[in-house]
Specification:
191 residues; mainly alpha
């Protein structure tokens, strides 16, 4: 009974030291704030790991899709009878092809350059120039392929480093420089 009487009959200042209560409240508030900050920091670390994993998954998916497109492109000249016949004429001068064969062969080359350009933009094997050298070598391994590069293919490539690699391949295969009349890209993309 004495305690209840003391609590209800005295003022709060008399029952407790106000400074002590304020100090304890500040300590508890600080501890709660620190706990929330640590929790949020841990959530940021977890979120960063999730984002890194998602980025790696997306990169793998792009790589697989790119590889699938390349395989489909390469297999088309084996599995498509009409393209196989047209592709066999790539060693001839393009001006000697009839309109249908010229369209088939130039479409095949165009897709090859577009795929190469896209892979470069997606940063696929950019640190392996040999990959792109081999790609251009297969596109320009014939008279028609080199003619296509000069007339149309070079203009498709809008990455300066990619054009430099392709020019080098052309010059090695042709035994001379790329003609000044060679197609120019609309604009180079700085990456």
């Amino acid at each position: 009974p004495f305690l209840w009487h003391y609590i209800f009959k005295t003022r709060l200042e008399g029952f407790m030291n106000t400074e002590l209560v304020v100090a304890v409240a500040q300590i508890l508030t600080g501890a709660a704030t620190l706990t929330v900050a640590v929790f949020l920091a841990a959530q940021l670390v977890v979120q960063r790991k999730v984002l890194v994993r998602a980025h790696e998954d997306a990169d793998r998916e792009l790589t697989l899709t790119s590889l699938g497109l390349l395989q489909e492109y390469l297999l088309s000249r084996i599995t498509d009878d009409s393209l196989r016949k047209v592709y066999a004429n790539r060693h001839d001068d393009l001006s000697r092809l009839n309109a249908t064969d010229l369209d088939g062969l130039t479409t095949y080359f165009r897709v090859g350059y577009l795929l190469t350009n896209t892979e470069w933009k997606l940063n696929r094997n950019r640190n392996l120039p040999g990959y792109y050298i081999k790609r251009f070598d297969s596109l320009m391994d014939s008279e028609g392929g080199r003619q296509y590069y000069v007339k149309w293919g070079r203009a498709i490539l809008n990455q300066l480093k990619l054009v430099e690699i392709a020019d080098e391949v052309y010059e090695n295969l042709e035994g001379g420089p790329v003609p000044a009349s060679a197609g120019q890209a609309i604009g180079f993309v700085k990456i």
